[in-house]
Amino acid sequence: MARPKIALIGAGQIGGTLAHLAAIKELGDVVLFDIAEGVPQGKALDIAESGPSEGFDARLKGTNDYADIAGADVCIVTAGVPRKPGMSRDDLLGINLKVMKAVGEGIRDNAPDAFVICITNPLDAMVWALREYSGLPHEKVVGMAGVLDSARFRHFLSLEFDVSMKDVTAFVLGGHGDTMVPLVRYSTVGGVPLPDLVDMGWTTKEKLDAIVQRTRDGGAEIVGLLKTGSAYYAPATSAIEMAEAYLKDQKRLLPCAAWVNGAYGLKGMYVGVPTIIGADGIERIVDIRLDKAEQEMFDNSVAAVRGLVEACQGIDPTLA
Ligand code: APR
Q: What positions does the entry give for substrate binding (predicted)?
């Protein structure tokens, strides 16, 4: 059987890390696409030359031609401009919307059967626009946010409790941004929910609130430190986890920005929810029950995402 083909649209910091991870994990052959000439070719060659030492056989190719992504099984999109210090995700809207048009059309014309994972920010609006421009089925176009947000939450919780990150599970809902909703009562250490751990004296409500806030600000914290770009190791790893779930039909329960039409009382929009990812793409939206406070936070997040989508429609009326 031929190896799966993974097309990475955008060969910047995240794109290069994605290519490296996909090769090391032997998820398939990798095509790195970018408009910058030489960058995808150089990164593909550099990573390919790590093959003998690392011991992988994946082929890597860099290109500036969409024809080379033909027949891709997975496309991961990072094309665009990353956030700079002081810039909100929403500032990026206008610039990256134009990029999504070019990328969506490139995927539509060359890899219409692919499972498409969007990483470009502002995420919830960009994944929606990418789906609109590409015309692919909604269940095959998804945004990477929740896996990263919950990974950050899990990391901070593991430090607080001094336990393995593997034993911490965390649930994050809503938009990828300041309004994201970390669900404390659905987050656990070895199955013990966080509120119980407060009762057991493992932490305090105040410390937990601070961790929730740090999770919400997780992207900005890295931007502030790096000064010349945004996070890329953890975002790339999160998208690879989603790609692997699709390619291996793992039926993983992963939070991501998915098309929600009916669940959560929503009528057709992209927002972060728990999903099942398998060979059919988004196979199920997991419609968990929210209490009043959680519902309010989720509604707030949904409203923020709607505002971004409306702003996109204002910029490009063909999206209306
Ligand atoms: N088509 C293809 N590639 C493009 C296009 C386009 N129309 N426009 C820009 N690019 C490429 C750039 O040439 C660059 O190589 O996208 C790449 C983006 O890479 P970086 O600037 O290094 O950004 P990165 O850190 O990888 O983040 C990419 O993910 O998390 C988000 O906010 C982040 O939106 C940003 C995206």
A: 83, 89, 121, 152
